[in-house]
Amino acid sequence: MPAREALLLSADQLLSNLPALYLEAEQSTAIRHGMPVRGLPTSERGEVKLYDQGQKPDNARFIGLGEVGADGVLRSKRLLATA
């Protein structure tokens, strides 16, 4: 089984064609509770990979897929379950 597991791709690698958006703790909590996030410092529009920045910048964790609308508001599309 370990040989098969080595061939598996992580969920965010499957979305490698999408831009990444790194969320601060408050933004990440809001998006995980189904709330839209406004005031993002990005010009990206459309689908984006969402990452929770965590305590350190190099410790970001993939949390799912979101979409930034023409109004600049981020909404969740599909999120990973968290424990």
Q: What kind of sheet is the major sheet? A: 4 strands, mixed
Terminal-residue CA separation: 25 Å
SSE order, one letter for each helix or strand:
HEHEEE
The coarse overall form would be globular
Query: Segments where pLDDT lies below 50 for 5+ residues?
Result: none
Helix coverage percent of residues? 10-25%
What do these coordinates show?
The chain has helices at residues 2-6, 25-32, and strands at residues 20-23, 46-52, 61-68, 74-79. A hairpin with a 5-residue loop joins strand 3 (61-68) and strand 4 (74-79). It has two helices and four strands, in the order H-E-H-E-E-E. It has a four-stranded mixed β-sheet. It is globular. It is of the alpha+beta class and 83 residues long.
Quickly list its features:
single chain; 83 residues; alpha+beta; four-stranded mixed beta sheet; 2 helices; 16% helix; 30% strand
The gist of it:
With 83 residues, the chain is an alpha+beta fold.
Question: How would you summarize the topology of this molecule?
Answer:
Blueprint lengths: L1 H5 L13 E4 L1 H8 L13 E7 L8 E8 L5 E6 L4
Parallel strand pairs: 1-2
Antiparallel strand pairs: 2-3, 3-4
